[in-house]
Design a protein that fits this description.
single chain; alpha/beta; Rossmann fold; Cytidine Deaminase, domain 2; six-stranded mixed beta sheet; 21 strands
Length: 507
């Protein structure tokens, strides 16, 4: 489909002049409006005003300029139907073969703290989405461009095909249009619906970021949508897998709990060791000591730039992914010797206010993301004995970690490290037993440790088992009908126990 006439009306002028010069060189007549026309004329390009083309003036402060049958007829009439051709000719409607439009920056406008409702309403684009949709519907004949990043490809095809574009390109560009207008309308609906995220419907439109080799298993197809790459940049190694991305997300969420130098090791989204220290190597030694077996094929994350010392320490361990805010050359040189090891630079932590979405039978479950950096100031002492300062630090550390362990979750902790972790058992006491066994396997003493539980102890047995293993303090939400029995068991064994009033199930 050869392009003879184009309509250009853009808010984002990036690359506009160079693209228009390419169109002019191909002999394309250009129609335009307002600021776009002014920009093109300033560049010395010949442009015809839309008002001149339609014979109808721009009016109502610019609200009506492209909403005209001559415009939409030129976009929508089918070139393969003689009846359409005859009607267009009878009404003086000339074909428009290319539409270049991007939209008023509504989302950016309403994101400003001082925006008024009237200003927001004026930034709802009507003509732009209408032209884009008309052109995209008739992509069998019309090329439509809503992203300056596609200018070069359009010009390449025109140059290679005597001013024409291919059906494949037109179809792909049309799909981008409908994705854009869906997201644009969603932003408007969210704004007009008020600040609450809970509405009468839920929708989510995210751009395709990558096609993945497969999902959790090789027989499952998978894709990544959204803006993952805004937060993480891959510096080295094999292509990320579906499971890698899940593990990376869990690792980033966990490390965001800590401000001091910290290293965490995860496997299948579960923490298997977390340590903090004066530097990353000291933190690593504590994290790795928790479990020297589980990290094989796991994820390692640090909240400080990777050091040469830490890189040397972890280089001998088979890991799938290593994450850090930066990788200085000396550390990078050590780790890049493993060609398949994925090295991920953590550019920025995603906002904690995101929502979780999971598929269920017939629909979706949507919830607020679990709180990050939780304060324990509102916790209540339940036992006769209060925790010592060291026990309090251990409880704080364990509480930060246990909320990231699959339920039923138990973490034995010291003031700056995990000592034993039990995850995902059907019975809480079994999670305690596993955590105690793992600590024994690692040769770590639980004497004087704090035990953290993501939900209440339904019976005293779990707490009794923790005390028998050496724990002297416990932190848990409380809320069981048997809380008094559990507290009594703690008092009988001299434990200090704090109730947070907040549960952290992770299914």
């Amino acid at each position: 489909m050869k392009i003879r006439r184009a309509l250009l009306s853009v808010t984002d002028k990036t690359g506009l002049v160079a693209f228009a010069r390419g169109l002019a060189a191909a002999g394309v007549e250009m129609l335009s409006t307002g600021g776009t026309a002014a920009t093109l004329r300033e560049a010395g390009l010949e442009v015809k005003d839309v008002a001149e083309h339609t014979g109808f003036p721009e009016m109502l402060d610019g609200r009506v300029k492209t909403l005209h049958p001559v415009i939409h007829g030129g976009l929508l009439f089918r070139r393969d139907l003689p009846a359409h051709e005859a009607q267009a000719a009878a009404h003086g409607i000339a074909p428009i073969d290319l539409v270049v439009v991007n939209l008023y920056a509504f989302a950016k406008t309403v994101a400003r703290g001082d925006v008024t409702r009237e200003e927001a309403i004026e930034n709802i684009d009507i003509g732009g989405p209408s032209m884009l949709r008309s052109a995209a519907k008739n992509h069998a004949a019309v090329t439509v461009v809503c992203d300056p990043g596609d200018y070069a490809e359009v010009l390449r095809e025109m140059k290679a095909s005597d001013g024409a574009t291919s059906s494949g390109l037109r179809a792909r560009l049309a799909a981008k249009v409908f994705d854009l207008t869906a997201r644009y309308d969603r932003a408007i609906a969210d704004y007009l619906g008020g600040p609450s995220p809970r509405g009468s419907s839920f929708s989510c439109a995210l751009p395709l970021a990558a096609g993945l080799r497969y999902g959790e298993n090789p027989h499952q197809k998978a894709e990544l949508y959204g803006r993952f790459s805004e937060h993480l940049e891959q510096l080295h190694g094999k292509e990320l897998s579906y499971n890698n991305i899940l593990d990376i997300t869990a690792a980033v969420d966990l490390i965001a709990e800590f401000s001091e130098p910290t290293v965490a090791i995860l496997k299948h989204t579960n923490p298997c060791g977390v340590g903090s220290g004066g530097d990353l190597l000291a933190a690593w030694d504590k994290a790795f000591a928790t479990d020297r077996q589980a990290p094989f094929g796991g994820i390692i994350i640090a909240n400080r730039p990777m050091t040469e010392a830490l890189a040397g320490a972890i280089a001998g361990i088979f890991s799938e992914v290593i994450i850090a805010p930066d990788f200085p050359p000396a550390a990078l040189d050590i780790l890049q010797k493993k060609k398949n090891l994925r090295l991920m630079k953590l550019r920025s932590l995603p906002e904690a206010a995101s929502r979780d979405v999971r598929s269920v039978v017939g629909g979706l479950l949507v919830q607020d993301h679990d709180a990050r950096g939780e304060e324990l100031a509102g916790s209540k002492l339940a036992t006769r004995r209060a925790p010592t300062p060291e026990e309090q630090r251990a409880m704080d550390f364990g509480w930060k970690v246990v909320k990231h362990v699959k339920s039923n979750a138990i973490v034995f902790a010291g003031p700056d490290r995990t000592l034993g972790i039990g995850a995902g058992q059907m019975s809480r006491v079994d999670s305690v037993r596993i955590a105690v066994w793992k600590a024994g396997e690692a040769g770590l003493s639980l004497a004087g440790s704090a035990v953290a539980s993501d939900a209440f102890f339904p019976f005293p047995d779990g707490l009794i088992a923790a005390a028998a293993a050496g724990a002297t303090a416990a932190i848990q939400p409380g809320g069981s009908v048997r809380d008094e029995e559990v507290v009594r068991a703690a008092d009988e064994r001299g434990l200090a126990m704090v109730l947070t009033g907040k549960r952290h199930f992770r299914h």
